[in-house]
Give the backbone structure.
Amino acid sequence: MSHSLDGFTPTSVENPETLEGLSNSLAKIHGASLSAVPWGGGTRIGVGNVPSGYDVAIDLSSFTGEIEHEPGDMTVIANAGVTIGRLNNVLAAEGQRLAFEVGNPANATVGGSVASNAPGHRQSSTGGIRDWVIGMQTVLADGTVTKSGGRVVKNVQGYEMHRLNTGAFGTLGVISQVAFKLLPLPAEQQTIIAWFDEHDTAREVGMRFVNGLFMPEAITLVSGPAANKVISASGESAPAERTYALMARVGGGIRAVERQVNEVVGAIGAQGAIGYAVLSDDATAHAWNELDGVVYTAGLAVRFISRTSVALNAALDIESHPAIIDAGSVSSIVDLGFGSSTITATPPDDETVLRVARIIREKLSEKPGSYVIEKCPLNVKQDMDVFSDVGSSIDLMRRIKAEYDPTNTLNPGRFAGKI
């Protein structure tokens, strides 16, 4: 694995396999006044600002240890280097699963996913990673091992400091172990995809499910070229004209899923969809994987979190901006239940990407909510903070950083406000 990042190449790589090894590595780095960037599977390592220093890579891919699964308590404890895919395979053997999803689970690790608060399609029904972490072990910049939460759901040890580290991008400490509460595997899951020629119609149908008698496990409205891609990936013929695709995944008991599928199909048909399909397992995997692929292959990807109506309107405003339309194919992926949108673009060159990123940042800054530019070329990071302005909270964030990492050892300059 290459550990180069934003034009930096570390002078050395640490590969700790034990807690003692990780602690000793950090103590050595701290004692030498060096800076370090923790690495997991590398799936989200590019999210963040350009580091202000990068001497040592801390590769945690071998920091796996034993997975401690307690099926009766519906909890699991895993080390930072365990991949989400492997963890879900272990849980599935006992009829359980993680409550959240992440992109590229075969490579995404527990530590990296939690540190970056990785998004996933199931947020519509279950929320984000932060909602399912019940305990955490972290190693501070000087090698000190700390713990918060515990191994059971009802535990207040450590004042839930694990919530502070979830989404902190490794700036306060290196996450070494996480405890999660779990959900049972549903007996049945089914994905329905429908496509419309009008945004308002697709939006209305989707919100009817969100506000209806049941919440789909995942419900996503896709527009732009991405909509045609997921329709084609599902094995259906995508229309040549502009299309809006609505993807809904339901889960539960066999009879409950059958009833929900019928309700979804009935609502879609009543609203005059151009077409729809109830997908097979293979087609389901292809369609959702294609949706993730749209983000991974984009030249620019910006994630915005707000109220669902704000996220929808922001995506529509940006997609219809003349300068962005002229710059290259633009798509949006809106999670209707969670209130987040991901806007992707594929401009022809870095200069155009920068111009588009500036427009998107300006438009999103006018809306209530927060954003992060999750994928972009280096020149965008050199031009702007990839995180939205956090206002007066930045002073508190800097004080917390100074308390936990006073020598600015861990991921310096990479978080919001270039902390």
Q: What stands out?
A: The radius of gyration is 22 Å. The CA atoms of residues 35 and 367 lie 36 Å apart.
